[in-house]
């Protein structure tokens, strides 16, 4: 189980930021710590915006079973060639977990084919995450609801295609609702979008969030050898007409 | 457009009840008034528990394009033979709108194949009804959100099959969420479950609820001549093997 | 992994029948042999129409993780009380695999809420089973297509609700198509309908069919402790309004 | 009802081609004639690869309710800026019908987020188009099956996201199957992919194909004023926290 966590790493470098205070090891560090609790067998590596190819060279991607993606400030600075490589790997079967503000990231919006816009408010809301697919492996062992004491608000309408499975719906103090956990398939790749998590709140230290992320990684693992469905449109050859 | 509204009519007969005060013409009367605003061409008739066959004889059902169903206290007193007739007509193409506590009605649970259980609290909540399928005809002209000042709480987990289309998600004052508007197809019949509406609150006088119900009726209208898919398993006959 | 295979057992008792010749151990015996190849850890028991409670007492059902169901001639002779017990166990999480002509069985039609009718022709067709969800665990290791040299024809329109996942589509010599592998969730129970298999053809000796059935059993295993979603509609109590 | 038909127009310019012989008015001409039979109120205009902006200027797109797209030889020569405009208009609500080999067109693949690859064979097959969603408006009045005497083969696996609605499944003489009619929503835009139709066969003169295309156009008509869901992530403002 080979995991790569991409965190753009901008907030972590802002001196005196809330992010630095909440996440001395970076958000990726908190996420990795959570994953290790549940997936001790996993090997985890990190990737960041300011590395060459953002740390996501073709070699790294080829050795990645599941890629988690956290971005916010610097979506536009992500290299289109890297984005294409990520998408090609998803098509081949790599799992992909876009987190929180990665709803607007290049790989996610290109895999969805929609704007992925949503409503937003920066107030300090309580988020409740309710399970609507109790038998889905991503919901295994998750309380109903998950209670997140401090969080910004993401609200409907969330401009995504109809999910394969809608797993979580959140409510916020203001009464808004959000489809906060949803799965998609693109090619051979499984995608799990999960919205809880923010650079201004300690959500990535929350044990229930750790469990969901670990469940998501396990679920998104490739089930077939890396391959591509983008075969040339060759005649079947092997199969005769009746 | 031939509409039949079944209202069991129990609460309306309880002297001094809130229902009598809120709905002097019965909940069915308020619903009918709302439908007439948007569907002036519709002919509407009523059916009640204490009529012979609950007012749902085979003749009435044969002349019904869309059946709305409100029940709460007297699910068990509905005759199984009538339930079978309703289900057969849904399979033939009759539209069906189970409302609010009709989640536990015999026709709805038998069409779903699940328990249709949910969480419930009788407190006086504010319900906000958010649209998640903005292009669906049932959401046409509906504000985002619909604001219902007084309502009991229906919460997840709602034990239904995965809907064809999830149109509305509600939140409540307590922070709970509910898939409050969802569509299903069974045979040739279109089904729209819509939860807002209660005998203790004036929800069926709410103009936005009127609009949703009228949209739902229009959407659920049969599109084919009444027929059945339950053909005998006869050989195709008309079609030769290649 | 505790598996029960219900086979009504009518064709097996018809002296000189094709079924007796093709399946000296019964169709259930051939299915069990196939499952044992892929699931050596499984314990398998059998149930038949002419046993008390058809072999499906509450005790047996309580000890069953996944129930396979083969029926054809004797759907009407299955006791309604047993059917109710089966459905309650599916709601609690028991996996359920209705096979071939079990499309018309009482448990399947009641879980679907539709007639489950289909087109049929008794000629000796070649059936090709094509995978349309290559990442689904039920399709793991399955050739594309599975080739079944002799089979009767099942054709669209198949009157089922929209499946959660459509996994296989079959074609037949006559040019007909059929959604031959489809999944559903009802309550906490996972359901996989799979059409290949017949009392007149040796389909249940086919190694690829064995693989699909084993994949289906593994996929349908309960993921939660046996429980019911049919909670009384009690106030939440544990959760305060905000 | 303002329709634009984009036909790249390459085959029509090849002297002596089958396309010239079968389609003296171009494939777009045959499609337009078919649409006019069923949609006499529609205004139809044409767009081609070799026009400035391929005939799809922002003004033309702004005046288009539904865009049909036929392309094959020249997908790569379509300007990325035009593709972006088309996608933006789909997000705003413009209907979109990619036809046949447009499965590989830039707008369709970008809206899907997948490769949209498929299996192919150039032999002269008989295609049968079976309806699996009989109540869907796109299937209204369509025979079961549509019989197309001459056609090339498109087969599974078709690398698309799970459709909103699967309407048609085709079989071919070789026994292959294909999800030949499927709908998707992207933003406010409705998309109907329909595979029958080819430059080498007279499929676009087939009256049943005309009916499906007309049904598809009617279904894909925008239901809301042109707008965008890609709102800035501004605070809600209008809505107070509870």
UniProtKB/TrEMBL annotation, chains A, B, C, D:
Gene3D superfamilies referenced in this protein's UniProt entry, alphabetically: 3.40.50.880
Pfam families xrefs: ThuA
Domain ThuA-like positions: 3-220
SUPFAM superfamilies: Class I glutamine amidotransferase-like
Protein name in the entry: ThuA domain-containing protein
